[in-house]
Amino acid sequence: xxxxxxxxPCSWQLVKLGDFVQSQKGKKSKNEAKEKSSSHPxxxxxxxxxxxxxxRTWTDGVGCHPCYESDFLMVWDxxxxxxxxxxxxxxxxxxxxxxxxxxxxxxxxxxxxxxxxQQINTRAKGSGTPHVDPDLLWNYDFPIPPLxxxxxxxxxxxxxxxxxxxxxxxLKLAQEQLKVYRQxxxxxxxxxxxxxxxxEKTLGNIESAFELKKRxxxxxxxxxxxxxxxxxxxAKVRRKPRPLKFPPELALExxxxxxxxxxxxxxxxxxxxxxxxxxxxxxxxxxxxxxxxIPWISSGEVSFCLINDTKxxxxxxxxxxxxxxxxxxxxxxxxxxxxxxxxxxxxxxxxEASHNQNTAAIRVAGSGVPPLYLYHYLTYCYENTRxxxxxxxxxALNMDRV
Length: 402
Description:
The chain is of the alpha+beta class. The chain contains 13 helices and 19 strands. The chain has helices at 17-20, 47-52, 106-115, 117-122, 134-137, 147-189, 196-201, 209-233, 252-257, 270-273, 316-320, 371-380, 382-387, and strands at 13-16, 22-25, 32-33, 42-45, 58-59, 66-67, 72-75, 84-86, 90-92, 96-100, 141-144, 275-278, 290-297, 305-307, 312-314, 332-335, 346-349, 354-355, 359-363.
């Protein structure tokens, strides 16, 4: 670039790109057709034609500039300005420029142009449709090594690129292996295999799953009675607490299909241990329902994380207009809808928050069960959770399935 002289070996030459190359801007064809014919035999080369080898338009060549396989084609106008590709024979499209490097090793020149793409693209000119800044492009210092060295440079670049490609492949393989290992580790954790020795040492000194379940249920009943009494005696508490409703226990046939657990463990439905809530959305037509101080969670924010803030917040009036609740920190959030990765993802509340109808809140807080334990279990169940769902169009979970 002008103002900064690149240091090159003494056997090389340094020239301004604009002084060395031959270039020409494309033009819009006057006569076009969607099919090749004897009257329109020439492919009209646009971005898709040189990048994907897909010709959409044919021309008779009138009013056009030709381009050749020996050229390089650069996108001159649009969001991808500066993108470069190897040339094809045809009529040069109006948003492209052909660049020809005389007496150069083709791939050497190609890699040089590729190395400038990021800078050319981010420094495009124009407030409407951006286009390549010619003052930037044509003032690049272009280093010219001897031909033999150009060949060697290309060879070395391709060797190193090949190693990078292998590194990317190995990284992807390692990531897949880590996913498998993670699932295997979680499987062992929730089958009791990781704590076998610990159980043997603490045998008889810890609360059994049956005792824990009984205690959780008694605490849930006690909490409901206190909340109901407070609601009945206080005008400030407007939201009537939801009556307790425990689902039926797992049938023997259902238990037999599950994996073997340690004697002091048991499988239970989430609804037997925790309250499960589905959220709601205040009306978007009421501006005074939005922009308040109450965090409000959408399903897109439930993504294997700790939620300490939300994109949207609702007002007290907005909260009172819906059937949702405000949940304490430690509550588990489960995304119930979405065809992509969203459905089945979990998060833990780090703050008090309400939520929309596409998410379920599992009130772990106050049960004695560590929220992280259930978080890791639902993470382990993620793929199986995604297979569940109802609805003909977009697959979704519902409160009964949760």
